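Q: How would the structure tokens look for this protein?
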Amino acid sequence: MTALVVVLLLLAGLSEAAGRILPLLARRPGMPRTLVIGLLLGAGLVEAAVFALWPLTAWTLAEVAGSAPAAGDGLEWTPGLAAPLLLSAVLAFPLLGPLLHLLLFVGVGASLAGPLATATDLGWWGAAGCVAAAGAGLGIAVEAVRRLVVRLSTPRTPEPVS
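A: Here is the predicted structure in token form.
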């Protein structure tokens, strides 16, 4: 993975995290800046890691689903593939439209399916299924962790003593 791809993935992760954290800040205006910056950086690194794992997970699913072993060394992000991902992450802000965000992710996934199809014997539709399953699986896993963190970090109100 080149340095440009790493920077694009980090920026996409930060943008995706900002799209999720800004509504939280609007509901809680008194949050300390250090906490906000820490949340933003931590969430941005997690999102960037998930983006980086998407092709690897799709490649693994293709190896499991395919009858013949894959012909290449693996599927990796290129600058041409990561740039639309950054665009979709920038558009992830809730007010700019989740449908457009979803459509861009489908476009990025479709562009990942092409190189995966050429490297395996699955064909384009099989590769697209692997890319979609990998993206959905990673998305569900991250959402589960996100909800767990929110649940664990929410202060509990003490029960009234009667």
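Residues 50 and 138 are 7 Å apart (CA to CA).

The helical segments are 3-27, 33-65, 79-90, 98-119, 123-153.

Upvote if useful.
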